[in-house]
Predict the 3D structure of the following.
Amino acid sequence: MYATEVATPRVQKFTAEGKHLVSFGSKSTEPGGFGGPRPEIDGPIAVCVDRNGHVWVSATNHRVQQFDRNGRFLQS
């Protein structure tokens, strides 16, 4: 299960029991970050996992980015 967090721009992954597995993302404007021109509303807003286990994240910085299941940035 994945959850977005805007206050600390990141995505978190949990087990079905609620155990934290990994967090990824930042306020950075670099690839893999969720920062943008308006820091008061930076952050991820939606998460989707494809059939290959890749995590797609849309953010307020007008980007959709792809990560592996461990949070490693793959492409934008």
Summary: Strands lie at 2-5, 10-14, 20-24, 44-49, 55-59, 64-67, 73-75. The chain has a mean pLDDT of 91. The longest strand covers residues 44-49.
